[in-house]
DNA sequence: GCAAACTGGTACGGCTTCGTACCAGAAAGG
DNA sequence: CCTTTCTGGTACGAAGCCGTACCAGTTTGC
């Protein structure tokens, strides 16, 4: 019996190689899944539903993913990379600017990406140990990066790794909670007002120094 | 047709009135659900599964709840009441004590209640708009209470409602993130060490003042 | 006792999703 | 062309859960 595996007699189709077509389908599935998970919600999502939105046969789902959870993980990687870019975009040489830039970037991203933000703020949570692990890794990574930017702005500070983890978690956790609260609020104050409140808090903190 | 509704010809059974029996069954369902949601997870939970653990016929589920989500809400109210007691147990007249007591109470509760904490930290998230609303309400409430205790310990501070909300969210969010990170790292390091790190951070903050 | 209410166990139809298979038509290659 | 691969649409069995109904045995009120 000769090798009859799928990749054996691969041919171009519509001018694209097999690998290119597979990758394109994978991207379409991920894009469709972001839409479905971010609107209907992951809990009510089905393989068939995602494929319908993607305009692909169910067969092609299993070509790229084994389970819906695998697709969720791929979706999350895309979403979190985008968020990471947003919250770490700002530069700053003093603590207030760093923290303010982080929160501002977060709220901006949530506002500009309502679907993706629902995926990140709600849908990926509590799905499975594996997804939780992913989530924790990225949260820690962003927290570490924030610490890296924050610590040098405060001379004479040499936190232990454990303290850095504490500060990173606290910053990320605070940002998430503020974002979640903002999203779930019935009447959302404009982002600018929220940031003005933040400035007030940070100002009071500085005044105490 | 005479009234044949269930409550019409109610009789005591095993010495208990109908209302008492119904309430007892409800409690058993809630207790079973905490166990199921906190171990198997809400996502994989079924009505039949919860009833089996509770040792009750499925019929009695629908006697007290219309959907599994209703039961989750009831479960959450029980769990959050317990957590609330834990995180607000400590007294304190200075900011460091208040914050430390909050974090300490949170971690203690997580450590002593692994099942309930999984429900609160993971399972209730991203279920539905209704559950999210519940979650947000309790988080805000705890944040407000923390603010109420924190603000008087810092003389000359009169935060606006918006600023109070900011601080409350930040505290609660930081606490949750720290707890989640701790749980996902299998509670390493031990709670005492983690609190020592917190003391270090708070100490550095004070030193800056 | 005896009828009526209650309990716990089992059973069943209906529904939804999964994962795969089949089929007809388009595109590629010799 | 004519065969082979690829695509998209439809179909189908298997499985799990829902919500309800039925049934046998117990407890209660009269």
TrEMBL record, chains A, B:
Region (Disordered): 1-20
Record's keyword terms, sorted: DNA-binding
Domain HTH tetR-type: 23-83
Residue ranges of the annotated DNA-binding region, renumbered to this chain: 46-65
Domain of life: Bacteria
Database matches in InterPro entries: Homeodomain-like_sf (IPR009057), HTH-type_TetR-like_transc_reg (IPR050109), HTH_TetR (IPR001647), Tet_transcr_reg_TetR-rel_C_sf (IPR036271)
Molecular functions (GO terms): DNA-binding transcription factor activity; transcription cis-regulatory region binding
Compositional bias (Basic and acidic residues): 1-11
Cited Pfam families: TetR_N
PANTHER family: HTH-TYPE TRANSCRIPTIONAL REGULATOR PKSA (PTHR30055:SF226), HTH-TYPE TRANSCRIPTIONAL REGULATOR RUTR (PTHR30055)
Protein name, UniProt field: TetR family transcriptional regulator
Annotated source species: Flexivirga endophytica
Classification lineage: Bacteria, Bacillati, Actinomycetota, Actinomycetes, Micrococcales
């Amino acid at each position: 019996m000769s090798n009859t595996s799928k990749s054996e007699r691969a041919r171009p189709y519509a001018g694209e190689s097999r690998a290119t077509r597979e990758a394109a389908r994978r991207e379409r599935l991920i894009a469709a899944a972001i839409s479905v998970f971010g609107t209907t919600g992951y809990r009510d999502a089905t393989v068939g539903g995602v494929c319908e939105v993607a305009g692909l046969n169910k067969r092609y789902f299993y070509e790229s993913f084994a389970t819906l959870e695998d697709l969720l993980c791929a979706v999350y990687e895309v979403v979190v990379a985008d968020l990471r870019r947003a919250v770490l975009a700002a530069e700053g040489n003093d603590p207030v600017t760093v923290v303010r830039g982080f929160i501002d970037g977060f709220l901006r991203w949530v506002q500009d990406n309502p679907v993706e933000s629902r995926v990140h703020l709600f849908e990926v949570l509590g799905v499975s140990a594996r997804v939780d692990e992913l989530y924790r890794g990225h949260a820690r990574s962003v927290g570490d990066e924030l610490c890296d930017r924050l610590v040098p702005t405060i001379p004479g500070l040499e936190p232990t790794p454990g303290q850095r983890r504490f500060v990173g978690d606290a910053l990320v956790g605070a940002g998430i909670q503020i974002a979640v609260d903002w999203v779930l609020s019935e009447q959302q104050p404009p982002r600018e007002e929220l940031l003005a409140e933040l400035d007030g808090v940070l100002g009071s903190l500085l005044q105490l120094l």
